[in-house]
Amino acid sequence: MTVTADSNVSLQDASTPLPAGRGVIEKSVSALSLPPKIRGTLREELLKVKPNREQLDEIIDHIMGGYAAACIEPCDPVGVVAAQSIGEPGTQMTMRTFHYAGVAEINVTLGLPRLIEILDARKNPSTPVMTVYLKDGVSKKKAQSVAWEIQKTTIPDLGGIITDRANLVILIEVDEDTLYERDLTLSDIIEKLEAKLKIPIEVEGYTLKLSPKESNLGSLVQLGRNLKKVLIKGIEAIPRVVIQKEGSEYILYTEGTALQEIFEIEGVDPTRTTSNHPGEMCEVFGIEAARNSIVKEIMETLREQGLNVDVKHIMLAADMMTCDGEVKQIGRHGLSGEKASILARAAFEVTVNHLIDAGIRGDIDELSGVTENVIVGQPINLGTGDVHLVAKPSA
Fold first, then answer.
1. Which tens digit of pLDDT belongs to each residue from 332-373?
2. Three-class DSSP category at 198
3. Which parts of the chain register pLDDT below 50?
4. Keyword set for this entry (predicted)?
5. CA–CA distance, 239 with 327 (Å, rounded to integer)
6. Going by C-beta distance under 8 Å and a sequence separation of 6 or more, which residues neighbour residue 261?
7. SS3 52
8. Which residue, among 365, 311, 358, 371, has the nearest Cα to 340 in the 3D structure?
9. Which residues contact 276 (CB under 8 A, 6 or more apart)?
10. Which residues are registered as beta bridge partners of 249?
């Protein structure tokens, strides 16, 4: 919010009375029935401008008028309006879209499936992606170095694996250039393999020779399988990292997500790095970050499809999903399943189960919501249905 002088309120006119003091401004702003954040911003701006008393009153009237116009009417069905505002554009969305705007190498779910998995608060999204910012984002060499620290590196990435069934040995021919590129040494690889496989390793140049503990074909095959699973470098959950230049800095996009682990890597900027998985954002940064993540992800999904939805509807949905301190889905295992009304729960899913359970417990439905009143044919407690008029006859 910025308070500026218009043609009717000339703050620079020398003939105007003395500006209002700090105490007058503080008192005037404190008396306003505005949210604390708006009051704080207004106070700061007024102390900068220092209007006189007449201008102060005019500015306050203007602010209060703008705030009143931005508020909803009493009894407005905000939930229904929000549901319609999100649901109707959802009918225009594509059913199956997989790509990432700006990063063609990484596929991510977009369109309606992405909107559904956000609102369902899925524990495992179909295509988790992290956007990793760097402290030194202008250096491509540094970005590449951090990328190799993040990306999962296994033995098949470093060279060829030959299984010699006749002699019951496995040979690993390590590529010297790949080793240098990923900032690894032979001793690093040997150390990791010996720690994980618990067998001695023979070295001949850049060839490693492994023999199973038991000299039989079954043990050799099992050793080959275990060998490919050994993590040499990077994070297990991130098989690929793509480097993109945006503006003047390099940004890393990861296939897979592991926020907590990535912050331990030197060079990563934890203040800007995010994941497209709201559940993980909640675990690492807290519920407020998860709420912002839900809003951001839904808005980006809609925007990518060319749909324009007011952010306030999305904010209401995100608030409802996170108001209890955890990310809940909008479904029978979340918000809809926790409604106080038995009829409202029954109208959503598993109707018979809800009615039988309520009957066994002897529950009472207060008929205070929309769905249950529609079912029994009563006016709903919203809009004009929430206004009760009593005619008082004249004496």
1. 888 888 888 889 888 888 889 889 999 999 989 888 888 889
2. coil
3. 1-14
4. DNA-directed RNA polymerase, Transcription
5. 27
6. 235, 237
7. strand
8. 365
9. 108, 125, 128, 129, 130, 131, 257, 293, 297
10. 246
pLDDT value of residue 98: 61
What does pTM read for this prediction?
0.78
Determine whether 227 is exposed, middle or buried from the number of CB atoms within 10 Å of its CB (0-12, 13-18, 19+): buried
CA 12 to CA 246: how far, in whole Å? 43
The amino acid at residue 87 is: G
3-state DSSP call for residue 131? Answer: strand
In sign, the C-alpha dihedral spanning 331, 332, 333, 334 is positive
Instruction: Supply the pLDDT for residue 102.
Output: 52
Residue type, 9: V
Element housing 138 (H / E) = none
Contacts of residue 317, defined as CB under 8 A and 6 or more positions apart, other chains included, come to 82, 86, 119, 294, 298, 330
Q: Which residue has the tokens 């505002």?
A: 85
Domains and CATH numbers, the chain: 1-71 (no CATH), 77-122+276-338 (1.10.1790), 153-229 (3.30.1370), 340-386 (1.10.150.390)
At 8, give phi and psi (nearest 5°): -85, -20
Q: What DSSP state is assigned to residue 12?
A: T
